[in-house]
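Private note to self, pasted from the team thread so I don't lose it. Backbone tokens:
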């Protein structure tokens, strides 16, 4: 689905609906997805198409940085948004009504345990997702530029 701003939103219907509500209300409807679970909108550039792609993700904080998890529910492959940011780490982020550019990077081996614990406290299913796949699920750090 292409939004009025020309960005391609997630093809999953419930995610596309969530993104639409989030955008239309500047996050008033959608920032808090479930009680105590907040989401941001992440826009990456497609590594093959070059088109902008947007998805909604649960986030946490590490100081000034935002954290997201490339879990894809424990699927054997990384989500497309993660592969996109590996190819081009400059991303756009919307948290509620606030919009900014960030540089995305995978948490280092030293950083990851604490960041994973932060994210698993917010969404405990991440621990289950990791047991469902042989790949190491990345934690992504979004650093405002």
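Design output:
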């Amino acid at each position: 689905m292409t939004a009025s701003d020309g960005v391609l939103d997630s093809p999953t219907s419930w995610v596309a609906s969530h993104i639409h509500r989030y955008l239309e209300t500047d996050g008033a409807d959608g920032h808090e997805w479930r009680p105590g679970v907040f989401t941001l909108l992440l826009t990456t550039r497609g590594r093959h198409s070059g088109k902008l792609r947007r998805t909604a993700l649960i986030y946490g904080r590490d100081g000034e940085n935002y954290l997201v998890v490339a879990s894809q529910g424990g699927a054997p492959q990384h989500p497309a948004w993660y592969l996109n940011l590996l190819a081009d780490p400059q991303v756009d982020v919307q948290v509620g009504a606030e919009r900014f550019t960030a540089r995305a990077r995978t948490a280092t081996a030293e950083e990851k345990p604490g960041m994973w614990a932060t994210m698993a406290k917010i969404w405990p299913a991440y621990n289950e997702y990791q047991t469902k796949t042989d790949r190491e699920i990345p934690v992504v750090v979004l650093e405002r530029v």
